[in-house]
Structures are given as structure tokens and as C-alpha cells.
Amino acid sequence: MTRMPLGLLALAVGGFGIGLTEFVILGLLPEVAADFAVSIPVAGHLVSGYALSVAVGGVVVTAATAALRPKTVLCALMVLFIVGNLLSAVSGDYATMFFGRVVAALCHGAFFGIGAVLASNLVASDRKARAISVMFAGLTIANVLGVPLGTFLGQQLGWRSTFWAITIVGVIALAGLIAYVPAKDAAERGPGQLRRELGAFTSGQVWLSILVTVFGFGAMFGAFTYIAPMLTSLAGLPPDAVAWMLVIFGAGLFTGNIIGGKTADGNLDKSLLVLLSALTIVLSAFTLTVHSPAGSAVTLFLLGAVGFAAVPGMQTRVLSFAHKAPTLASGVNISAFNLGNAIGAYLGGTTIAAGLGLASPIWVGAALAVTAVALMGTASLLLRRNQPTGPSGTPETVPHATELTRKAYS
């Protein structure tokens, strides 16, 4: 059995900490809102503000560090992550908490974007995709175990204790990066690297793929951002049951990650169309099941499974059209995930503030999912029209995800 490089494990720990920072706030919104004497929609800005900072940081930070060694950049980003979470842990007011979230978020997009390329270079050529999945597994494990445990810890010892724990995770990840990630370049770096990376964005398919990511991921989090008040006020669950419902959602994410990797190995565009359509159906059903504890549990699992199953395909599709210079495209698509998160959280909070009820963000998510389906259908149709035709006069088959990934990281 091939031994997993310790540097890859360090990347996974970093991914775990970052995923925990992003999502644990969802289960602690009522406690944070009460502590700072703000409304739930205002507390929700801690989610959308984080996501917007990721969206900006993923592009700006990745571009600004294009000529630097990946290990140097990743270590600096983890220091930023530690500082941001430390600020959140000691914040005495809402503004300081918000600032800490923004600081921590600046590392998110660039860490996953650069880390994905670096991870692929830590293993043999026939194990690159699996190496990348290991790093992203840290994100799913954060949702399966970290978020529920972090929510429970915050409810028992105060929400600040959760951010102290995340800060410690950051220190462990930093130590692992310093000790085990090699300092060699992941690719040819230098002054001309940024120009090569920007060249990937001349492809219309890259932009369409990014838009699919924005609306597809925004659909899931448009509904999920306000899940804690939904479960307590609409489903009638006690606050301490929220953590266990997040375990169910996290199990869905973990399952979806496995399913998504397998389905993307087939017809990539078809799998995304099916999954995004299924997401629309699940969200529509959630508007009814959110009033039942058992119904909410089942639908939350399906929401996590279907929503996250589309993620590997979304990332692979972007990289497949930017394979000559994937680092910036990878970072931008990570930003796109979080831009969708921000849009979903903002629109969901707006509908609640407008008096449309706590279930209204679910309808926002469904509308975003329909938009993602339309964009994916358009991208697929344009791709087929522009493809060379085979001997029978029909378009050639869209390349499988495995080949696209190989091209992206070769």
C-alpha cells in the first residue's frame, strides 16, 4: 500500500480548519446574535461577509502570489487564518468579530486553489486526482464531525470557545505545512506566470463553468445559512438538537463527495445537469418538510448529498478548460463557491427581513438552483455545437472527468 505523504495530511488539516471556520458559525448564529445584541439577519452577515472575503481573496491573493513558492504562500495564508480566528475569539463587539471573519477568509480561496495544485505534485502521476480529493476531504470531515462538535462546544462553553479551538487547529496545520510540505515549485513560476494564468480566462466555457458554481453552490447555502433558526422555530426542535441535525447534513456532504467523484468520471456535463436538477427538487420539497423534525432530517441529508455531489464536477469542469495554467482558475472557482454562498446568505436574510418568513431562504435556494440548471444546459449545448463531429455527423462525446483532471494537472 502506498503511504500517504505527510504534506498531504497537513493540507487536509488546513482544509479541515478552514471548513470549520466557514461553516460552524451557522450553528452558532443565535448565540452570537444574542451576545452582540443584533438580529439573526444581521448576524447572518458574518456568513455572507466571510464568503465575499473568500471570493475576493481567492482571486487577488492567488494572482498577487503567482510568482512565489507555493509552500511560502500556504504558510503565510495559514498565519492569516490563525490571526483572523484569534480576533474572532477575543472580539468584544460585532465589528471586531466581523473583521476577524474577513481576515480569516482571505486565506480560504487561495489556500484551496494553490493547495490543490501542490497536492497533485506530492504523489505519482496516476494518483493526482486522489491526492486532491484527500485535501478536500478535510472540508467534508469538518462538516461531518467538526461543525457539529464545534456547535456543541459553543453551546456548552460559549461560542468563543469554538473559535479558540479553531485557532489551535490552525497552529497544528501550520506546523505540518512547515515540516512536511516540500519547498520545491509545483510548476514553473516566475514573472510570466500571472500572464499565463490569466490566459485561461479567454475561454467562454471557463466563465460559464464559474457561473454554474456560483448559482449551484449558492442554491444550497441560500437555504442552509439560516438552518439553526429554521429548525428551532419551524421544526420545533430544541437548540441542543441543532448540532445533531448538522451531523446529518455533514453525513450528506460526505456521501455526496463520494458520489460526486464517481459520477464525474462518466459524462461530466450530464452528471452536473442531473445533480443540479435534483437539487432544485430537494429544495422545493424542503419548503414542506422544514416544519417536521423527521422530514427536516431526511431533507437535510439529501440537501448535503445532492448539493455537494456537484462540487467535484464543478471544479473539474473549470480546470478542464484551464489545464495549461490551472492555479488561478482553481482559486477563482473556489471564490465562486463562496460568492454563491454570500449571494444565497444575503438574499435569504433579505427575504426574512422583508417579513416573508424563516422558510423564505429555501425558495431563494430553489430559484438559484433553477438558474444553475439553465446555465449548465447552455454551457453544455454550446460545447456540443462547437465540438468536431464524428464520422456519423454527431458531436463527439464530452471528455470524461478523469481525462479532464489528468490534463488539468499534467
Structural class: mainly alpha
Unreliable residue runs: 389-410
Question: What is the CATH architecture term?
Answer: Up-down Bundle
According to DSSP, the number of beta strands is: 0
Q: Please tally the helical runs, counting DSSP H or I stretches of 4 or more residues.
A: 17
Number of domains: 1
The CATH topology = Growth Hormone, Chain: A
Distance between the termini: 24 Å
Provide structural commentary:
- The protein is mostly helical.
- It has helices at 6-36, 40-43, 45-64, 70-90, 94-105, 108-120, 128-157, 159-180, 193-198, 204-224, 227-233, 242-263, 268-289, 293-320, 326-353, 360-386, 401-409.
- It has one domain (7-387, 395-409): MFS general substrate transporter like domains (Growth Hormone, Chain: A).
- It contains 17 helices and no strands.
- Helix 3 runs antiparallel to helix 15 and helix 15 packs antiparallel against helix 16 (360-386).
- The longest helix has 31 residues, at 6-36.
Summarize the helices and strands and which ones pair or pack.
Layout: H1 6-36, H2 40-43, H3 45-64, H4 70-90, H5 94-105, H6 108-120, H7 128-157, H8 159-180, H9 193-198, H10 204-224, H11 227-233, H12 242-263, H13 268-289, H14 293-320, H15 326-353, H16 360-386, H17 401-409
Question: Keywords, please?
Answer:
410 residues; mainly alpha; Growth Hormone, Chain: A; 17 helices; 79% helix; globular; disordered C terminus; transmembrane helix
In short:
This protein is an all-alpha fold. The protein is built from 17 helices and no strands.
